[in-house]
Structures are given as structure tokens and as C-alpha cells.
Amino acid sequence: MTTQMTGEFTAPAADYLSLDSLFSVEELELRDRVRKFVDARIKPNINAWYEAAHFPRELPRELGEQGLLGMTITGYGCPGLSAVEKGIAMMELEAGDSGLRTFVSVQDSLAMSAIHKFGSEAQKQRWLPGMAKGELIGCFGLTEPTAGSDPSNMITHARLEGDEWVLNGAKRWIGLASIADVAIIWAKTDEGIRGFLVPTSTPGFTATPIQPKLSMRASIQCDITLDDVRLAPDAVLPGVTGLKGPLSCLDEARYGILWGALGAARDSYEAALTYTLQREQFGRPIAGFQLTQEKLVAMVLEIQKGLLVALHTGRMKDAGTLRPAQISFGKLNNVREAIAICREARTMLGGNGITLDYSPLRHASNLEAVRTYEGTDEVHTLIMGRAITDIPAFT
């Protein structure tokens, strides 16, 4: 790790405030293990995957072997980690690439979470063990072409015909749908919004990857069409009716994002620091110029503050005191600041920064999608505004 020295004061560049002291030995061991995996498996390959818009199909099983799927679920072959441990893992994965962290978010925080929270015991036994191993892939169908930030206006509907559910509608920006084995589809029914477990081999289910993309190129997002998809009565998730179901899963994903974005920011900062210490102009390293140091200092400030926000949020989640509106604080702040850090890091690399030889612009491009999904900046601003004033301002 690069160290900066001034007089008698010495501080690791990536941990200026010695925040490692706030983590347990077990948490730091998990961080180091996931970081080692990312350094060995993702970073050497991500440029090629990103340029080719390729998601490595072998990766889910490798992530399962690392215990990174269904992280906070106990039983069903899942590791039963704490919320803080999950956050740490998300941060390290996103230091590799946001798109690959997104895979874990979709599989873990959305699909597996929905089944674990709201599924029957038979549904849990059917899907969760294979998903924990990465042998089965899930996706989560909530967003629609005309209903993004306002899921209550979804068009997808399900009706009972005899002893079968029949689903019709469309979903958009659904991660992993074209490689998934099961889709959790949220649809309107006469009882309200319900979740359905839809095996993707079911006639009438079609998933089409959205291409080309300028962001999340090493990830998969799809359009889904549902054309008279017929399901058995036990396909419905029995444990919830209404939007509180999918929204609680979104909170799980948002929590992972507020940690994950810090990984992209940290990786970009470290790339800029290393480059400016090595690159010489006007007879000295550009890290020795005042404007460069100002940029580095601004990055350290926001990364360290963001990590404090993430850690405190995680401790509250583990204690059972975290409120959904508090997750919005971290998602809004940490993603917004991470984008700014990645963009600034790119400027410090000069023209070299627009190549895939360096990570900041790739991270910045990915974070544009992260900033949009699981609640836009505007939505999280309004969630916080409602919490502050007790006045909803969504319409």
C-alpha cells in the first residue's frame, strides 16, 4: 500500500483515518479474502469482458464457492453473514466492476431475498440451495417500460383461470433475465400486487438482452415479455401482498449499493494516486503539484466519510434499528460522491484515462447506471425529504 509521509505523521493512503480499527478481525479477514479473489479473478479480465460486453457465465459458481451468494441468509446452504460483512464483500466486488457486483445484488439481494422473505418452505428448498452455489440463477422483475420510479402503476397482471395463474405484461432493465432459471415477477392481481416464481423455461416467457449499452457492459440487463404465461397455484409467493414486498427487497439491494460504490471510488482513487506518483511532468511527479494534491485530498475526504456512513448503516442493520429512509442517505450520498471521484480521477490520468488501461472512466460509466437503478437520486432525495418534513412530495 502506498504511504504518504509528512514530518512524523504517516498514514496509509487508502485508510487515512485508520478506519480498519472499527472492524473486527473476522470482518477484515473477509475483506482480504474477497479482495484477493477480485485481484486474481476479476481485475486481470475485466477490460476484455467490458470491451466485449461479456458476462462470464462461469463466474456465478465461483462466487458461490466464495460464499458470496445469499450472504445474510442462514440455512439452505447460505453462509449467514452479518450485514456489515455483506457490505464489505460488495465494496470489494465493485472495486473490480459495478456490473459484477450487480450480479450479486440481483441474485442475492433481490431474487434470493424475495424467496427467503416471502416464499413457502417448499419454494425455499427448491431454489435457494442451488442459487447459493451459483448453479441456479434468479432475476427480479419489477421495473416496466412505463413504470420505473412508480411501480404502483405497473401494467403486468395475473389472473386465475381455473387452477392456473395466467401472467401477461412486460418488464424492462431486468438483470440476468436471459440467463436466469427463475424469475420473480411482480404483477397486479385482484388481491393486490403479488410475486410469482416463474421458471424461465415456461412457454410465453421471453427475455431479450438490451444492447448496445454504454454502462454495465460486463453485466446483463433485459426486456421481458410475458405472453399468457401459465403457472401452477403454488407459483405465488405466499408471504406478502402489496408493494411492501418488492420494496423491501429493493432496500436490501440499496444497502449493498451504498457499500459497493465506495469500492469503485477507492479503486479509482488508488489508480490516480499511483499514476500521479509515477508520472513526471516539468521535472517532477505530478503528485507534487498543489492542484493534484487538492484533488487527492478531496477524494480521501469523501471515501472515508462514505465508509463511515456505510459502516454505521450496517451496524444499525445488524442491530435491527435501520429504517428504510436511512438507507436512502447512504445510497444517495455514496453513489453521487463515487461518480465525482471517478470522474476526477480520470482527469488526473490525462488522455490515458480514456483507455481501458485504467479503471476510473469505466467505473464512472458504470456508476451512471448505479445512480439510476434501485431508486434515482431524485427518488432518494424525496424519500429523505418526506422523512425530514413528514410531507410526501412525490407528486
TrEMBL record:
Its cofactor is FAD. InterPro entries: Acyl-CoA_Oxase/DH_mid-dom, Acyl-CoA_Oxase/DH_mid-dom_sf, AcylCo_DH-like_C, AcylCo_DH/oxidase_C, AcylCoA_DH/ox_N, AcylCoA_DH/ox_N_sf, AcylCoA_DH/oxidase_NM_dom_sf, Glutaryl-CoA_DH_mitochondrial. Residues 242-388 form the Acyl-CoA dehydrogenase/oxidase C-terminal domain. Pfam families: Acyl-CoA_dh_1 (PF00441), Acyl-CoA_dh_M (PF02770), Acyl-CoA_dh_N (PF02771). Residues 26-135 form the Acyl-CoA dehydrogenase/oxidase N-terminal domain. Residues 139-229 form the Acyl-CoA oxidase/dehydrogenase middle domain. Keywords: FAD, Flavoprotein, Oxidoreductase, Transit peptide. PANTHER family: GLUTARYL-COA DEHYDROGENASE, MITOCHONDRIAL. Belongs to the acyl-CoA dehydrogenase family. This is Acyl-CoA dehydrogenase family protein. It comes from Streptomyces gibsoniae.
